[in-house]
Amino acid sequence: MNDDPVNGGRMPKKERMRFVSAEQVAQLAGVSRSAVSRTFTPGASVAPATRERVLRAAEELGYHVNDLARGVLANQSRLVGIVATRPEVGFRAHLAAALAKSLIRRGSIPILINTGQTEDELLAAQKMLIGHRAEAIIILSGSPPTSFVELAQRNGQPLVVIGRSESDVDHVRAGNSEASRKAATVFYESGRRRLAVIGSNSKTPAIVERENAFLSAAASLGASVSVARGGDSDYEGGLAAGRALFSEKAKPDSVFCANDLIAFGLMDVVRQEARLRIPEDVAVIGFDDVPESSWLSYRLTTFRQDPLIMAQRAVELMERRLEDPDSPPGYERVIPELVIRQSFRP
């Protein structure tokens, strides 16, 4: 510790903010600056005794290689941009966390880019994405505009999209249609005839696909279907759509919700405002299986998307693209499984 009398015996703030340099390691180890560089460069030639002195000095000082500077010199940033709109919401939050974990495991540096929702926020996010020369970009489901995809393509950056459709890029998608058709089928086979589906006016690709597939399957079964949409794909959207559904005289006996957050809002309306029982009066199925789905207040039957599997598939596609930039677009489809809880038991 620096015995600086002006700072009460503490190291000056400016000094505390400095990282240990390779030059300091060289001085302590009694070697040249280039010897330190060779020690931390894989495959470089350095005498065993010199390497040992450098590593001992580095450990004593707490030195770490400046990977950012090294990446700039090699024109490889190792940064991977994770692009999302409202990344803190629902399944996207868990997917972003899983992606960060998978990327760190492979030695990449994840950088989360929240696109925001205003034009100024979108422009700032785009500048950040390109300015940092990301090694690759992963765009999550939701509503990041297609301009992000086009910008990455123009700059030759490897790109993976999750839960959305874009031309000439690598994809990871959930089996939205398969799950939604199954939801309609299990409701019908359990004797439910007044079906409903809740989507949202945000009309993200995944939400639209789930809604349309449910409607198509219900029509083929001959069941009547009501449709309600909240403003967004969240709890408040579920509240609004639930109130619209259960203000009608003919109330549904089963509701498929395009995600779990919507389902939570709906379930609270059904129990607290409509005074109906779940599942006796109204059966509910969600989509995503976020952790709150198993909470005692909800115990929601839902289709599980595994964020770790989705993330790993995305990283594998990214790695393939980095190794072979001219390979045809890859496509991974992950089929969700129905997790049975108390809100509906087929």
Automatic annotation (TrEMBL):
Pfam families: LacI, Peripla_BP_3. One of its GO terms (molecular function) is DNA binding. Coiled coil: none annotated. Keywords: DNA-binding, Transcription, Transcription regulation. Residues 20-74 form the HTH lacI-type domain. SMART domains: HTH_LACI (SM00354). This is LacI family DNA-binding transcriptional regulator. It comes from Rhizobium lentis.
